[in-house]
Fold these 3 entries.
Entry 1:
Amino acid sequence: MMRDTKTPDFYNIDSLLTDDERQVRDTVARFVDERVLPIIADCFEHERFPTELIPEMAELGLFGPTFKDYGCAGLNNVAYGLIMQELERGDSGIRSFASVQSGLVMYPIHTYGSDEQKNRWLPQMAKAKAIGCFGLTEPDGGSDPGTMKTRAEKKGGDWVLSGAKMWITSGSVADVAVVWAMTVHGVRGFLVEKGAPGYTTRDIPHKFSLRASVTSELFFDNCRIPESNRLPKAEGLGAPLSCLTQARYGIAWGGVGAAIACYRETLEFCRQRVLFGSPLINKQHMQVRLADILRRITLGQLLALQLGRLKDQGTMHHTHVSLAKWNNVRMGLDVARECRDILGAGGISVECCPVRHMLNLESVITYEGTETIHQLIVGREITGVAAF
């Protein structure tokens, strides 16, 4: 029996999926092939997020897909992971947009919001009639969110926010920002709407990574919002960290998608490229490199799938997510670098996807917890000692 080395699915992981999971994956894969891949290199080159794809993504049910209410699809977490895998096979910027909308904005509203907040925002966000962003990271750092400088002070029936957030995906295009600020009672979450007095945004230019994504700064200059915009159930740092767990889960699948894209293009190149009289696939050293890439992807696929099964069973721990995010994004980045090298001089061209994925993954390995942070989270789980 021939093993699937082209997709790749060397361990027949497809057989471990349900019919519904395969259908979701294949539907999103077609969307990526037909709508994302034809335009994404140009978007990356010209630093443009393809907003024209947002309504189509909403029509496919890609925003908040695991919620069973508010007009969402009610999918399981493996299906959600496969969505993230396929979107990142297209580009990290596309997956980041969906990841923020679902895991970092809809999730905290669904989990920590009032009924009024849920009814107002979630149906609109599922349809992409409203866009959200997540404000946690600040100019002075993001790895230690407990030291955040953004403050919220209660004044009468309102809250007044002062401070800034940085490296915020979708910041300037968002209709609402989920903002985390320090109060006299600890960290609290707030919904800051576009146009609120004292709230402004600014895009961060000149990026060499995530160029097909909007990345912004958020500024709060005595920004006044009503008490009704506070997330009533979000108390303490655990609330924003739980949101990061949702986003990191999707990223663990996304790293696999980026690696698959690089592998497919590189394998086809090796079949066609003739060197010293024969195709590269005939060369011993090239077979070793391709086999090693396949090995890494297969391990990442199995890790992501088991993580999804644990999440669906309700037994997933945040340290499971840390290990998977650390492993699979590192794997994706290493595979992208290896593939770019195999492609030779042409590998630096935007027309070749590995260099684009490589540059994107330099950001992905940093955001939602750096590689080192996740190593230390796992280390603390092993030893019982926090070494941050």
Entry 2:
Amino acid sequence: MIKLGYDGKRAFFNNTGLGNYSRDTIRVVSKNFTNNKYYIYTSNDSKNERLDFINSNKNIYIKTPKNLFYKSFDILWRSKKVVDDLLNDEIDIYHGLSNEIPYGIEATGIKTIVTIHDLIFIRYPNLFNPFDRYIYFKKFKSACERANKIIAVSKQTKRDIIKFFNISEEKITVIYQGCNNIFQKEIAIEKQNQVAKKYNLPNKFLLYVGTIEERKNLLNLLKAIKKIPNQKLVVVGNGKNYKKKCLKYIQVNNLEKNILFINNLSLNEIRAIYAKAEIMIYPSIFEGFGIPILEALFSKVPVITSKDGCFSEAGGPHTSYINPLSSEDIKNAILKIQSSNEIKNKMTNNGYAYAQNFTDEKIAINLMNLYKSLWKLLMKH
């Protein structure tokens, strides 16, 4: 039996990429390997419906700071003081799920793994303020240097860790992310229709899923939509300043009737929207991996995404790849898929087959193999 500790901050408080990764990692491993004990360390264990799997799992334990001071100043607890709790709980391996591990843990004998998702702040510094960039660089690099093993969520991220942090290749294992198993199951037609009615979905629509921010490049997709008559686009996600920019473009170009924004959906509702979509378009400039691509492939929806970086790792050989900075390229890809049911069916069937590389079981086995390799080292001592 291995006692595994996890940084639970994102699992409880974040409903986008890093939160999904944290929850799915704990869920798939605890479900497939029930003989271990799993401890989640979080400063606040407030309810999150996406963590419901914990309730039915006897081998998961939620751990919070023992005193009020550290509950209030959770950054101090997470970055250092949590080490005392890990020692008290006799944790064998600690997995930092989002780019960091606590300071001082390397002196305890507890084996450590850190997952690095991406180094976007180095590749695209203009998207971040200088202070944040400085903090991220120090924190991510320190975690990579101090951890016993590093998980990179794509080969692209692995290359970046080696290049920017000068870390040896042997220390890094690529373990892909999966997606929530809701997307890996069929969804009843009644549920699809119920969601379509609730959100007033068009009968036929293109789909964008993701935060609305500059890097994810929704504006170029809107420019492509403008070039094709009678297209409808459903945008699942929210944003701040960049969203305002997109809304301005929609208004100036009279596209209000063509674009529908929705957010704060349950996972079941998002799954229903994928099932109704004609094509999912993910024109992001750069990602660590790109979970919506997988969600779409599992949901049997053709995908258009960007041609560089990690996107082909998530999308496989039967996804349509475009230059995300060219609205003309995006437009042509949409028209090509819409022109032929044969192309659409081929993309759907082959994409679904490719997605089977990312099932819960396969990801759980890859993670457990890494945990066991560290555990064996512990046992030698």
Entry 3:
Amino acid sequence: MLLDQLSILIAIGFSGASLGLTLFMMWIVGRGETHLLSWSLALAFILVGVAFFGSVVENYNAVFLLVSFLFLITGFGLLYAGSAKFCSGQADWPLAMTLVVLGGLSTTVAFAFGYSGIGTMAGNILLGVLMLTTGYRYWIARAESPLLMTANAALYLIVSVSFVLCGYALAHEGQYILTAKPSNWAEDINSIVVIAGLTGIGTLSLTLNQARIANRHKREAMTDALTGLLNRRALLQNPSDTMPAGTALVAMDLDYFKKINDRFGHDCGDQALKAFAELIRANIRPTDLAARMGGEEFCIVVSDENPRAPTAIAERIREQVEAMTIPTAAGPIRTTVSAGISYSSGDETLQSLLIRADEALYEAKSEGRNRVRTSSLNSLAA
């Protein structure tokens, strides 16, 4: 059994070292991902704690056992902070530090007064609490990836229970003062659960992190960097798809935008584009899509059985743009917008709708700008 425990601790060491190095190298590549640094530091502390714990397997030493718990508690605290950062964007250092200090003090005080068994109980229970709170972070954030987040939360719960059982077993056996390393059924279960659980947690955490990076890159590829709206590529992913009846496309273009750039400069022109994008965003519904097609050209896809809804949205935006003053370093900017609308008859592609909306937009421009026009095909049909 002694060899088995040492083998398990060595396996935990190699597994943790490999994972920690991987996480640290990933942080080096992407310095903005601070949760990776927290996780790698956590594993470093945990490995030192495991090493001290391994040293008391053959030759019991209360000081080494205490040091082991202090490193493990600190490591699990860093693991919680990193996971909180990953799940919510905030590391929650106050709670992490509170639990680490509480665990460190209670364990140290018990060992200092000679009650190493009670100190070991306290250390195990605090490790369980840290695992439980970390798992809860993944549980409340499971909407991002229900299966993987829930699986990670479950693994943290299982590991948490195994630590609490270690404390329970010592209390049940009345081992308040230790003369040897704890050895009971709970410790055996904990050894197996920890290596399996932490390996699974590491694998799932890496998978979740890589999935998030892939999704972020996909969003960035589909988002206009200046305005935060969708870009042309995102809107026209499937240009040949048939648009259902009731779908309308509103093409919008800021009037005389070149003159704005020439007079105020491109930076001020960018401010005008961002202000217009915010105005669009404020006037559409969650079911609508808005995109910047390029330059000063924007597009809104409206899904509504009420044929007046797209016109109402376009007119509202037009009126607000006309009344808007955009403050810039080069002076206030005033502008107007023209819009063209096309409606799908139920057997039309998005590309076809865009062509007809552009034609209606050209009509609005040719009639003097600052107005909304509907595709002549829809007008005749009406």
